[in-house]
Task: inverse folding
């Protein structure tokens, strides 16, 4: 059985140690080995080699045995004041003189207290058991018959018929075991910490290598072994310059300098290397080197960018998601698909709500960049200074409030992918100049930075303005306009492709959970009633209208037809654009108003003129009922 703690004892002391072990519970097992003064140190050496042994406890007489321990902690059991008092209390009252014998040296630290006791104390020492026997006989010849000491003294004194008082108490031994428990606990924590550190090192994505102050390898992880193509036995203890000759290790250690992103080569493999020296109180303790293949860095960068945009900034739509049957939309979508197969910049022009970003995402997903990031930004949504930092990023400390460590801009995040610049016509002259340079040079510089960052980004820009007109008026750079307008797409407004409205409406209603038959019926009525509606908000406005219809359908019950017509009427009334209702829809509106008036008057008759009850029957609020009645009065 393995014992974390061993007590190196001698015969008389062993009984006291076992008594302490029996009386107390310890969270570890304790082994006991008895040694005699002068025994060889082989026993201690064997225990020191045993990795299960963590602490060795022994008396001062065995101190030289444990002085050469290389791995195991040692606790020397020395005589305390409590031990002396415990021993002196056992001296018989009639005793006038005693001898206190100790191995090696006398108790000089306690001699100044001798006068406090009712007997005279003679201090003596011995170097081995033979000398102890001779000295005890000498004291007996002088008439002194009480001896205080360790095992050798007590054994011989008792054999010669004298009073023998053992010097070590249970209390001192128990304290030694408590110290051993503390050492074991600390050792366990150190092991746990070491295991965690080792797990971190071994599972790190980079190759890690630690060296001592002389530049010799001390520890390395499996990634380092793989990259260097050697075994741990081949590398440990070897000078770092033997396989990294380009690294001026000695100079770096002496100067305490770090190395960041240095390029080196090992057996034809290109590596990116970082080195950090370890210094404590100005003393050189070696250092840590991390390195990885340059190809892995590039792959990781791409993966990070892709992962960032997978969380929300990705192209979700494809050409198949664009619902249409109009010739005009078919024309522009065919052209967009052709453009997607190139890598040129695209300018999309269209009114608000026509689906410019949806087309941009479809182009991205139809291109060779489909597996790379798609990053979108609305140029009109941010002030100039903030938009500049978002587009180009910034370095640490570039301005007050800058994020520590700096920040990547959208150009960097869109590397190898697509950057969609919505509302491009809102860019300030300063940002127009920076964007032009980025498009021309395919490189950017962060705010506050001094290094050029190459970027591979396809630009898709969109605007709801006449960009050519802005150029002529001097509000937009002509050179930037031609850079953006390499390929042009026009998205027609919804009023120019009315045949698409039923399909879009039906699809949106189905998405809201409404059955196909009902979706078609509602879509037909909406299209017929709003045949002349201008749809200033285009598809986005249609989506809002359909959402309101779906809410009414799902919650109004039997009153839905009435509320649906009311909603359509409100849309016609609110439409102040140049595309008002047609004659057919106006006639339908008049008929609906007549039917609505008759329905309201019937509800009032059934409710006996109680407007609140009539409103409940109709499924409308009292306010709506009052408004309808007033409109009837105004119409006569």
Result:
């Amino acid at each position: 059985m393995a014992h974390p703690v061993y007590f190196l004892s001698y015969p008389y002391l062993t009984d006291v140690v076992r008594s302490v072990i029996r009386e107390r519970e310890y969270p570890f097992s304790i082994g006991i080995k008895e040694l005699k003064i002068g025994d060889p140190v082989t026993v201690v050496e064997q225990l020191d080699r045993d990795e299960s042994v963590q602490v060795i406890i022994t008396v001062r007489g065995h101190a030289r045995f444990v002085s050469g321990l290389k791995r195991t902690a040692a606790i020397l059991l020395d005589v305390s004041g409590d031990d002396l008092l415990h021993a002196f209390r056992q001296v018989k009252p009639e005793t006038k003189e005693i001898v206190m014998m100790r191995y090696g040296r006398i108790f000089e630290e306690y001699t100044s207290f001798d006068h406090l006791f009712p007997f005279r104390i003679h201090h003596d020492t011995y170097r081995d058991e033979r000398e102890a026997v001779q000295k005890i006989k000498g004291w007996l010849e002088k008439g002194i018959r009480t001896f205080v000491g360790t095992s050798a003294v007590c054994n011989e004194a008792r054999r010669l018929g004298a009073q023998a008082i053992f010097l070590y108490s249970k209390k001192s031994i128990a304290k030694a075991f408590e110290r051993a428990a503390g050492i074991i606990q600390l050792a366990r924590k150190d092991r746990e910490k070491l295991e965690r550190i080792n797990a971190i090192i071994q599972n790190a994505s980079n190759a890690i290598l630690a060296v001592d102050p002389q530049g010799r390898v001390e520890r390395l992880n499996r990634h380092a072994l793989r990259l260097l193509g050697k075994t741990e036995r081949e590398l440990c203890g070897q000078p770092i310059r033997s396989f990294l000759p380009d690294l001026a290790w000695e100079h770096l250690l002496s100067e305490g300098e770090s190395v960041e992103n240095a390029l080196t080569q090992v057996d034809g493999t290109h590596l990116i290397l970082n080195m950090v020296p370890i210094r404590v109180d100005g003393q050189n303790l070696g250092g840590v080197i991390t390195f990885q293949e340059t190809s892995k860095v590039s792959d990781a960068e791409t993966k990070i960018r892709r992962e960032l945009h997978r969380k929300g900034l990705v192209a979700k739509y494809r050409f198949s998601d664009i619902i249409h049957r109009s010739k005009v939309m078919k024309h522009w979508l065919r052209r967009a698909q052709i453009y997607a197969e190139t890598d040129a910049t695209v300018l999309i022009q269209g009114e608000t709500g026509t689906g410019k970003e949806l087309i941009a995402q479809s182009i991205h997903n139809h291109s060779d960049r489909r597996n790379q990031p798609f990053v979108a930004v609305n140029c009109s949504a941010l002030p100039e200074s903030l938009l500049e930092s978002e587009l180009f990023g910034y370095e640490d400390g570039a301005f007050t409030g800058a994020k520590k460590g700096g920040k990547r801009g959208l150009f960097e995040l869109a590397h190898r992918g697509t950057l969609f610049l919505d509302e491009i016509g809102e860019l300030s002259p300063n940002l127009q100049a920076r964007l032009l340079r980025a498009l021309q040079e395919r490189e950017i510089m962060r705010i506050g930075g001094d290094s050029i960052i190459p970027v591979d980004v396809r630009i898709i820009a969109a605007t709801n303005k006449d960009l050519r007109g802005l150029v002529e008026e001097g509000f937009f750079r002509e050179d930037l306009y031609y850079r953006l307008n390499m390929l042009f797409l026009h998205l027609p407004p919804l009023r120019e492709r009315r045949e698409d409205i039923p399909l879009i409406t039906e699809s949106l209603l189905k998405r809201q959970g409404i059955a196909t038959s009902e979706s078609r019926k509602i879509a037909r009525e909406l299209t017929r009633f709003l045949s002349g509606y201008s749809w200033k908000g285009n598809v986005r406005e249609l989506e809002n209208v359909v959402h309101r219809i779906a809410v009414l359908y799902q919650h109004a019950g039997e009153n839905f037809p009435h509320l649906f017509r009311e909603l359509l009427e409100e849309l016609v009334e609110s439409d102040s654009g140049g595309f008002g209702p047609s004659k057919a829809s106006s006639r339908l509106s008049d008929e609906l108003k007549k039917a609505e008036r008759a329905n309201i008057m019937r509800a009032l008759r059934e409710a006996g003129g109680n407007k609140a009850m009539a409103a409940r029957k109709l499924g409308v609020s009292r306010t709506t009922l009052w408004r309808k009645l007033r409109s009837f009065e105004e119409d006569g």
